[in-house]
């Protein structure tokens, strides 16, 4: 079956791919899902509004966005629309905008603006899918504003567009989840303040968009599913581009790694912006008389952002500058000075002192994030000879898994890797019984988190693996027991770690810490 390129050009045709046939997909029902006849009647109006003014193209292009809600992907879509304006415009498809066609949506927003979007989503999503099919069948340029959270759905979409003769780009936002969460709340409160019908994104929807995107990026590079991929920072600036030339990428594909690195690279300036944004949100909720639970949530986020800013200032800034911005850090720097003196008094070598001070800074920064008072002397606290030293190691491993996700990213790697190095560098005796208890906890945790197929779960698996490596380096005799304690899914993973030999040594750690931040001198 052939289809005309446009109503004007009857001769130029394409063969319509099976995936673009006019089929009706089942819609998941809510109490507000429309009857099929009304659903289709409304789509007729949508089709006229979206398709009639857009010219067909001999070489059509499709630009797809990716990013969790609040990441700024809408700005990428607007950029694409503006670029297409000079060449016959485009069909811009956004499920959020199609919700407005649902006859009950506005009333639902007035009644419960936090649930309204989900209640009409089945119809809006079906309209978006049909609009993509019809726009592609007519060979019109398309901009698809979506999260791209599902690798399978994204690959299926790109296959459909490829079969219809499209050049496809995927443009992705790499934004930390805390920034996008804050933007969701800010957008919602500003709409409320302006007496607009506000749209709220539930946390679970935001989370799904966040964790799914890296796998989607990996999938399109692996499958060569798009002609070009670009990754953008929180200001929509491109930080990574890759294109296909004659069926091959023009550079080594590393989109997933770039995406995850940028997400986790919160600059000090971004932390400052977070604190200011949440301070503004606290005022906005107070002015509109928000419910106590809502206000408590935002106030807690404001406090968390404030503590993170202080911790990052401690990590990144020279002492004088950090104290000027955060006088409350005086106790933290006093603890640093006290620990340095104690390390010297104990006769530790420069290499050993590097290990101790690296751990001290790590522990103090984590304490600042948690809002707890730094200990006056971390050396005495962590390595008090009156208690088994391995108990301190075990306690720290447990603490590592109790940290917030972002804290784990910052602290987990160093914490796990240094557990064995501290014991070796300071030459304290270790009880095998104590180490066995620590090992048991780590393996149980590993068995548990290997069942979690998410990015945060995978990150925890890596950290648990590092803890296993640290423990077996401290006591090689534990290797057999650790492997035996693993369940059937974890056993091959742990066995591989044990076989690698765990090249953990004080010199490597010292080099890593020397490159990490200021105030590392002994």
Automatic annotation (TrEMBL):
This is Zeta toxin domain-containing protein. Signal peptide: none annotated. Residues 55-243 form the Zeta toxin domain. Keywords: ATP-binding, Nucleotide-binding, Plasmid. Gene3D superfamilies: P-loop containing nucleotide triphosphate hydrolases. One of its GO terms (molecular function) is kinase activity. Pfam families: Zeta_toxin. It comes from Aquipseudomonas alcaligenes.
């Amino acid at each position: 079956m052939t289809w005309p390129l446009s109503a004007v050009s009857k001769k130029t045709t394409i063969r319509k791919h099976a995936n673009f046939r006019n089929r009706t997909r089942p819609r998941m029902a809510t109490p507000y899902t429309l009857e099929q006849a009304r659903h289709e009647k409304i789509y007729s109006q949508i089709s006229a509004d979206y398709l009639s003014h857009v010219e067909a193209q001999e070489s059509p292009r499709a630009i797809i966005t990716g990013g969790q809600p609040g990441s700024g992907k809408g700005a990428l879509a607007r950029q694409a629309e503006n670029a297409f304006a000079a060449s016959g415009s485009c069909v811009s498809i956004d499920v959020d905008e199609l919700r407005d066609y649902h006859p009950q949506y506005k009333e639902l927003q007035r009644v419960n603006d936090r649930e309204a979007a989900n209640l009409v989503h089945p119809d809006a999503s079906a309209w978006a899918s049909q609009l993509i099919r019809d726009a592609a069948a007519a060979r019109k340029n398309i901009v698809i504003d979506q999260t791209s959270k599902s690798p399978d759905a994204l690959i299926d979409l790109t296959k459909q567009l490829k079969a219809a003769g499209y050049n496809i780009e995927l443009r992705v936002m790499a934004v930390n989840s805390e920034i996008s969460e804050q933007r969701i709340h800010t957008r919602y409160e500003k709409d409320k303040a302006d007496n607009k019908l506000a749209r709220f994104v539930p946390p679970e929807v935001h989370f799904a968009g966040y964790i799914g995107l890296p796998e989607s990026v990996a999938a399109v590079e692996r499958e060569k599913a798009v002609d070009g991929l670009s990754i953008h920072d929180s200001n929509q600036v491109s930080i990574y581009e890759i294109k296909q030339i004659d069926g091959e990428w023009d550079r080594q594909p590393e989109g997933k790694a770039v995406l995850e690195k940028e997400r986790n690279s919160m600059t000090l300036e971004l932390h400052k912006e977070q604190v200011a944004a949440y301070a503004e949100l606290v005022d906005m909720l107070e002015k509109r008389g928000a419910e106590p639970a809502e206000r408590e949530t935002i106030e807690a986020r404001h406090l968390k952002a404030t503590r993170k800013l202080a911790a990052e200032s401690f990590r990144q800034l020279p002492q004088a500058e950090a104290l000027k911005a955060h006088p409350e850090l005086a106790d933290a720097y006093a603890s640093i000075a006290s620990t340095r003196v104690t390390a010297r008094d104990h006769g530790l070598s420069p290499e050993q002192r590097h290990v101790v001070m690296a751990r001290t800074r790590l522990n103090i920064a984590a304490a600042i994030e948690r809002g707890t008072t730094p200990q006056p002397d971390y050396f005495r606290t962590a390595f008090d000879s009156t208690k088994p030293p391995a108990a301190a190691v075990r306690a720290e491993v447990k603490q590592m898994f109790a940290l917030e996700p972002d804290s784990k990213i910052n602290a987990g790697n160093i914490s796990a890797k240094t557990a064995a190095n501290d014991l070796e560098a300071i030459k304290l005796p270790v009880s095998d019984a104590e180490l066995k208890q620590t090992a048991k906890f780590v393996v149980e945790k590993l068995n548990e988190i290997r069942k979690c197929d998410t990015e945060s779960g995978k990150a925890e698996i890596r950290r648990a693996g590092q803890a296993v490596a640290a423990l077996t380096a401290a006591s090689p005799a534990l290797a057999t027991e650790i492997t035996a304690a693993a369940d059937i899914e974890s056993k091959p993973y742990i066995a591989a770690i044990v076989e690698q030999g765990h090249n953990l040594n004080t010199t490597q750690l010292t080099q890593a810490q020397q490159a990490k931040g200021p105030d590392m001198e002994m």
